[in-house]
Structure formats: C-alpha cells, structure tokens
Amino acid sequence: MDLFKTLSAMTVVVALTAPVMAPAADLEYWGEAGGWDIMIDPTLGNGCLIQAEYDNGVLVRIGFDLNEESAYLTAFHDNWGGIEEGAQYDISFDLDGQSYEGEATGIYLNGMPGADIYFDSEDFLWDLASKYTLTLYNDNGEVMSIELGGSMVALEEAIACQDSQ
Predict the structure, then answer these.
(1) Fewer beta carbons under 10 A from the terminal one: N or C of the chain?
(2) What 3-state class would DSSP assign to 16?
(3) Distance between CA atoms of 13 and 34, rounded to whole angstroms?
(4) What is the pLDDT along the chain (165 residues), one digit of tens a residue?
(5) 5: exposed, middle or buried (C-beta count within 10 Å: 0-12, 13-18, 19+)?
(6) Which helix (H) or strand (E) holds 123?
(7) In whole angstroms, what is the distance from residue 32 CA to residue 38 CA?
(8) Which residues form the signal peptide (predicted)?
C-alpha cells in the first residue's frame, strides 16, 4: 500500500490546519522493530507509528495520520515547559547535514510538552528513516538531537502494520 500516492513529493510542507495530536493514551501495541515500538493510534484513523524514548528524556513518534493523509514527527520532553498548546512555531531540521524547514504545533502528552510536525512528503519520510542523526532547531537554537538507529526497519514495520489495518 502506497500511503503517499495521493500526496505530493515536495520538500517538507507542514499541514498548518492539521489537528493537534490527541494525548494518545489509547495507543495499541503492535510490535517492535529496530529498538522502536510499533503502535496503532485509533484517534488518527488507526494510523501506525514508531515510538522511542531516549536516555535524554526525549520521546519521539513518527507515524501516519490517516485522517489527514499525512505523516508526522512528534517529540516531547519535560524541559520544554515554554510550549503553548496549539501555538505555531517555526522550526528547522538537520538530517545528517541536509536541512528542512517547517512549522510545529505545541502539544502536551500527559502533561509533557511537545512539538507536533506534520508533513506530506514521502521523500522526507524516507530521508528521516535513512539518516543517522536528527537535530531539531527553533528560533533560539538547538532543541534536541537524537540518533535514528533502527528507524528504517521500524518504519518498514509500521508500513506492514498500516497494511494490516
């Protein structure tokens, strides 16, 4: 199943009208691959996602929102207390030296602040999965840097999860 057949393959374009992701207390466990949990989010049209929590306290999700026919990257951290729910923030990504621009929406998950970033580029999704380091910046500088080890195999498993839905 080509989840992005109807989506344009352009550089990262964040869906400004995309809804803020639900707290996802109702995630369903589907499996594990490459050190990432594979989950199903019923609030996003049974969209599958990969999720990892890092030693630095960052929780990252990369998944599919079938309600919006988009993909997303969401990151949370307890130290990001200045984030306002629903507010828009200009951000940039660095994936092993390749830069992307976008916009994030402030979100909270069980009281933990985060940034919800929607995109409709299949190329960006595969770039994300094939790279080794993701660094996220806002106007004040670096927000986080994480290793993406295992993300390719995890994303492939998330697509198998999505095919099963």
Answers:
(1) N
(2) coil
(3) 27
(4) 333 332 222 223 333 223 334 444 589 999 999 999 999 999 999 999 999 999 999 999 999 999 999 999 999 999 888 899 999 999 998 999 999 899 999 999 989 999 999 988 878 888 889 999 999 999 889 999 999 999 999 999 999 999 998
(5) exposed
(6) helix 122-130
(7) 5
(8) 1-24
Q: Where on the phi/psi map is residue 6: left (φ > 0), alpha (ψ -120 to 50), or beta?
A: alpha
Instruction: Give the sign of the dihedral formed by CA 67, CA 68, CA 71, CA 75.
Output: negative
Structure-token pair, residue 145: 């840097």
- Which pLDDT belongs to residue 121? 82
Distance of alpha carbon 34 from alpha carbon 154, whole angstroms: 5
Is 2.60.40.1880 the CATH number for 28-163?
yes
Q: In 3-state terms, what secondary structure has residue 126?
A: helix
